Amino acid sequence: MRKILLIIIALAFAIVSLPIDSFSLLREYFGKGKKASYMGRQIQLVYTPKGYLKFEAIIKQAPSGKTRLEFLSPRPFSGYVIVWGEEGGALIPPKRGRMSFPRFVPARDLWDIHLDLLSKSARVSQLGEEKVIGRKASVFLVKPAYVKGGYYKLWVDKATGIRLKTERYSPSGKLLFSISLVSLQLNPSLKEEEFEVPGFRTESRNYSLEEMEKLLHFRPLLPTYIPPGYKILHKRPFMDRRWKGVIIHLTDGLNPITIMETFSPRRHLNAPIPSQPEIVFLNIQGYSVFLTGNVDREVLEKVGRSLK
Questions:
Q1: pTM here?
Q2: 73: closest CA among 157, 182, 149, 147?
Q3: What is the predicted pLDDT for the residue at 131?
Q4: Using an 8 Å Cβ cutoff, are 197 and 58 in contact?
Q5: CA atoms of 255 and 278, how far apart (whole Å)
């Protein structure tokens, strides 16, 4: 009996001592990072057809999880502020003698890492440890498991879970952007009003087809082909003086795909997205369709041609 008890204790100790898998470790770090309160300076390099554009910004994260980014350079962007949380955010231009106004940006999970989906649709590998701004960081490689798409390399602070550096690559291995913290202050004194946006809807609304048809006066098309690992997260109408249409967001947790539809054949919105390497324009059943995402062009075309 004593031998059996010793064997059970040994097995339990062995199970507890097993190394945690890479994805679970990354989830654990991100859980810490969400609760962290910090500020610092950040350098961003964004790929454009003419070369990499460099931005410098001050980043602040409140205990509530909201994040604020104020751009310091280059000159055309200095003074712009982005405030966002889990459900979305706003881009606020400098006043420059007139009233500032918010332009709403997508929810974090549309252009960042969506962990719940990622657990089923990506391969996460730990590449070891490195030092970034003098802090110990675990290095991760995150690649899609099913679709030919881009991938991330992440440097995550071991103590706090804060991402100290992020690199995003195209499916062919081209560096699309690099974001690096160059200074970090933990537990700073932050003003809550810095993270407030007047009139901002904290919860993103997902419209039904019937609601959108009533608003737009045409029935939106939906993809009948959803790439493996992907899920439609949001569908919403957009309207301005010249255009009205629908935006559909899909993601596998790593590489979002955006579909924009307008009922105007052979005309397309001027929507250059320098950090997205693939853009596809299609005319389908009288609709003008624009698709973009950090995936192979064939994937976008297959999704676009499945719209019905």
A1: 0.85
A2: 182
A3: 97
A4: no
A5: 12
